[in-house]
Amino acid sequence: MSRYDEIFSDSLHEECGVIGIYDMGDGLDVARLTYYGLYALQHRGQESAGIAVNSIDENDKIQILQYKDMGLVQEVFNNLVLNELKGRASVGHVRYTTAGGSRRENAQPLVSRYQKGTFALVHNGNLVDVDTMRRNLKDEGAIFQTTNDSEIIAHLLAKERIKTDSTAEAVLRLMGEISGAYSMIIMTPKRMVVVRDPQGFRPLCMGMIKNSYVFASETCALDSIGAEFVRDVEPGEVIVVDKDGLHSYKDRCGAKTALCVFEYVYVARPDSVIDGVSVHAARLKAGRFLAKESPVDADVVIGVPDSGLDAALGYSQESGIPYGVGFIKNKYIGRTFIQPTQEERESALRIKLNAMREAVSGKRVIMIDDSIVRGTTSGRIVQLLRDAGAKEVHVRISSPPFKNPCYFGIDVADRDSLIACRMSVEETCRHIGADSLAYLSLSAVEKIAEGSKCSRCYACFTGKYPVRVPQEENR
Fold it and tell me: Which residue in the list 16, 205, 220, 406 is annotated as catalytic?
């Protein structure tokens, strides 16, 4: 856990965001476009950022250049760096640590050199049973430079690529060896390979700028660089782009899909469209369902920034209770934010989030948030409202209680850290100091993304995982 997240540890955190651009002769500045796309995906990861490009050296040979470091996109890149990253194709990555540690060597893109050449890989998601795969590879003589599961993918891909002249065939074979969440982009000197796991745990979409192809975790990244959305990459699909155009392979398609429902509840930006459903519209629905299921007399509805805002608006629209701006969020705290001592945590929270006294003083407040994970920060936020003069604070959560670990890219690894596993709803309400507490029902959250091309994964609520997870971890 980073210093920043240790302070605000009640929030969920996703793994990362990816983007890839392949210029089909339009003369694009692919690195700079990737940089702008990563800005739009910054919410998916704030610990590290990186870009790799295909570049032609003085001998007219194609090489892969990369630059990556710890920090926000604006902290890692500047004009001098971007001017050096010239090429025909690029891949970019922003990361939050869920698997592996918060260290520079775990930053991506991951550039690997093997018998047949070089490739750069960016990966969103987590594999299951990584300990066994890593141990088996080490027994075969593999050397690891990182502690993340993306390097396991790189090792296995290199092994499969040696066996065949087809990159697509190598990737399809790889997909038969791994399980879990992997939306990823692989760039070789001549082509770009885009892969989404058969369950479609994490989103991945395709767009175009003129005749060139763009792939990204969310449609907001396409919008930010002027790319036109074409379609979502299908779960199980492998797409290869080279100088001859785009080639799609669907040999691994057809499995039961399981897009993470938290993409709609929390992870994705509200202006994105994930597998055919607007994230903003899904959160409005969640708020409306909350108002129907858990009404309460109050004077104002407020949301905890950022993902609680749309749900709060939906609650207000359904209940008729006025919507208000209850918090001001400081958006300028990077990863270099100094960790305070335990005694300074209250002051640290006020730096991040401050209550609007004019909006809540003397009022009965309904506070909407997306989740309660560990139960630490929620109590502090309720206290902020009390200190600002709120007469009552009623907490409503736009998802069911989080009771099970996630193995597919959200950073909740064990039940011991989950307050819903240790306390009842009434106990949790007392613990955070609220006047009342209610969660969205499972039946309601199943309806917020109706019309999506993918079914959703609800394992964090139900414990029913769409793929096998290691039993010792599941216990």
Answer: 16
